[in-house]
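Holo model, adenosine-5'-diphosphate. Inputs:
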Amino acid sequence: MNLTIDDAKILLKKHFGYEDFRSGQLEIISHILSGQDTLGIMPTGAGKSICYQIPAMLFNGVTIVISPLISLMKDQVDNLNQIGIPATFINSSLSSGQYVKTINNAYNGFYKIIYVAPERLNSERFLDLLQKIDVSMFAIDEAHCISRWGHDFRPSYMEIADVILNLPKRPIVTAFTATATVDVKNDIINLLHLSNPFVLTTGFDRKNLYFSVKSPENRKKFVIEYIQSHSDVSGIVYCLTRKSVDMLYDTLNKLSISVSKYHGGMTDKERNLSQEDFVYDRTSVMIATNAFGMGIDKSNIRYVIHYNMPRDLESYYQEAGRAGRDGDFSDCILLFSRADIVTNKLLIEQGSSERTHSIEIKKLNDMVDYCNTDKCLRKYILEYFGEMPSFSECNNCSNCDSEIEVTDITTDSQKIFSCIKRMHERFGLALVSDVLKGANSAKIRSLGFNNLSTYSIMKDYSKDTIKDLISFLISENYISTVGEQYPVLKLTSLANDVLFNQKKVFIKRKIEKLSDKNSKLIASTNYEDFDTDLFNILKDLRMSLSKDLGIPPFIIFADVSLKQMAKFYPTSSEEFLYIDGVGDYKLSKYGKVFLDVINKYLSMHNVKKADITLSSVESSDTSSVVYDNDQSYEHRLKEKSHKEDTKIVTYNLFMEGKTPDEISNIRGLTLNTVQNHLIACFENGLPIDLNNYIDMDAKDLVFDAFRKCGIEKLKPIKDALPSSISYFDIKYFLVCFKKEEEIF
Ligand code: ADP
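Output:
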């Protein structure tokens, strides 16, 4: 059977409720459908899953998906089952009873997609299953795990090629990753034995993410204020250490902010519970170390704040990229303090081998450059990942929105240098800052530092600012740190030039042009541009359904779908289908409850449908509601292509043998609408046989009525005919009549 991208597009709408493929998806799916091995390299959130899920539905046999993340499998399978795709997972979380049942179901052809962890490839029982069922495709998710060059090498990925080799028939092999380096790519192709693969690397740009780097005087205060002003959305705050996670968590908790935490020092049970609270929207903020996030598919994370600078851009982009998977605007804020450079260096010294040390230091320097650069942040990231962006400014990051202010800090630097000198270059950052600040501590008194001329010479500065200045001087090589456990500050020759040779020191600061709360999220008109009251009501409804059904809210509908509902006020099944993320299955599952709420809301608030106009509903663009009384809602709803798509869905169901009544039930459309779709397909020349539903003997009578009453209005024709002849008959014969009379 020749499968085409049009077949795939129909499933995209039917199951996932999306109108169009995103860039990359189209090419990848076309190649997979043509039978070619494929490697897709796309950033987090780009939509890799659909690239194998849709072909899996079109192939005759079963698709085996190898995924390293057990925690993600259940969510993915729940999600697929929700939209009418028969899928399951087999991993160590199943009880032996569940395992046997799942294997039996798989033998009996119940599933189109089976997710397994790579370790399963060692199980005799599972290998036996693979021998006996028709495997059409192997899809390897997170394929970089096969490479030692990747950041999470999983030895069991090495088994995959052998298992495939021993299958009775070689399936198509596809692989997906977000890691773009050449070494990893080559490893994937070679170690998976991909045969003449189609390889596609999409751009790594995530346009809906607003990147910013900030150095607030008080980080904690910044985070609290940001979270409080975004209390209605979900976000993650990443910290470098467990200690900072606990500290921030306690602070926010005391302020009655609904918050979860996650780090390696908690028990598995505590971590799972905490993660679940966040995923199910029971808490809105997650404070975590980088241990959190790998298995998280939550699509409505609106911000990711890095409380500390991470150690490399790979980690940063992966963690920040967890924001905005649903395509809606989201903030990625990195709070940069130069003290983080010192902490990261220490972590690298402690953790890295001789082989990796210099690479890690180089990566850290690139990360620091990102924080210091005054050029476009997006461009910096993309170039780091090997792209050559065509723009020099994205106008969508904090640097493009900032002006640079250069300040002469020579005098402050001299104060710091002479203090270090007077302390005989034998002490670290904390004590030097305390002396400059003039702290009244026993240690300072016992060492006699309160008698130094530099004691309290910077008393007007906060201690954080002094530390920040010293860290700046370290990063610019005026000061070096010696020793690992208790690094001691020493002056370099550059510092001596400042002290004795009139060398000047300048620091660059970014001044944000935006006057608001430094958040694109709040500034964005997009975010405000829908009926927030209705949105909140719909969110509550989603939450109560989530509780009843035991599935995360975002699996029921993504935030973007709710925003579109709160903007376009769909009131019928047909209109509901125009919302992104609503396909036939979601319509039949949730259409009624959501439409009831929307209709009730409209009547209570006296909002008439005719008063609401939308200019267009573009995929993941929820911008601009326009008020216009001249056009009918129906007319305005969507471009023609969308309407044609919905007819095609009806057509396909009909061609699968469903009756118009069944289609009406499946799609939640009125019978009349389904009949109109079928007539339109017939009129457009699609091969369709309506003989079983049309009273063929009535042809002459109906034709006579057309000649007598004209064909402009159907009602007089209907009235002139016996009541057994339906509107469906009349519309059908009208097409025949026009064809015969050639009056189209
Ligand atoms: P990845 O695996 O690449 O990180 P996912 O497959 O999880 O990304 O997809 C991210 C989000 O994008 C999901 O919420 C998914 O439903 C959505 N998505 C995928 N393809 C499309 C599309 N063509 N149109 C709209 N949304 C899409």
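The chain has four domains: 5-201, 209-338+381-389, 407-520, 526-622. The CA atoms of residues 481 and 489 lie 5 Å apart.
Archived with the compound record.
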